[in-house]
Amino acid sequence: MTLNKPSFNPPNWVFAPVWSVLYVMMGISAGWVWAKGFHHKWVKTGLYHFGFQLLLNGLWSIMFFGLKQPLLALLIIIALLIVLALTIKWFKVVSKFAAYLLTPYFLWVCFATALNFKIWELN
User: Fold this and answer.
1) pLDDT band at 1 (very low <50, low <70, confident <90, very high)
2) What count of other Cβ atoms lies within 10 Å of the Cβ of residue 59?
3) For residues 123 and 118, what is the distance between their CA atoms, to the nearest angstrom?
4) 8 Å CB contact between 65 and 38
């Protein structure tokens, strides 16, 4: 099944380098928070949110690419945005640097949400 895509859909070659950079930044961000000491309440809270958003990210990929279910994927990516915003909030309590490293990821997921919505709408 081929999905109709909106005019603002980037070319396929863009996704791999963008996600590579974002995952490196996410890893540095989480590592920076972890280094503050997992025994701290806010470190644990931030990292639990981080783990949950990673699960939602993976689930979104399965729904969108694997099962080709753009509506379910849209619901998941909206939940991802909410949990990611909470992750940034808790990371900022521990380290502003770590929170800022997640900002490009948040912006990319906002773009992906708009793209997902439009793909759902067109199909």
Assistant:
1) low
2) 17
3) 9
4) no
Which tokens belong to 79?
A: 């939940």
Residue 28 has a CB neighbour count (10 Å cut-off) of: 14
Q: What tens digit of pLDDT does each residue of 84-107 get?
A: 999 999 999 999 999 999 999 999
Determine the residue type at 20: S
Q: Locate all alpha helices (DSSP H) within 7-95, ordered by sequence.
A: 12-34, 41-61, 70-94
What is residue 102's three-state secondary structure?
coil
Q: pLDDT tens-digit profile of 15-73? A: 999 999 999 999 999 999 999 999 999 999 999 999 999 999 999 999 999 999 999 99
Which tokens sit at 30? 């989480």
What 12-18 contacts at long range (C-beta under 8 Å, 24+ apart), as own/partner pairs, is: 18/108
* Alpha carbon distance 46, 48 (integer Å): 6
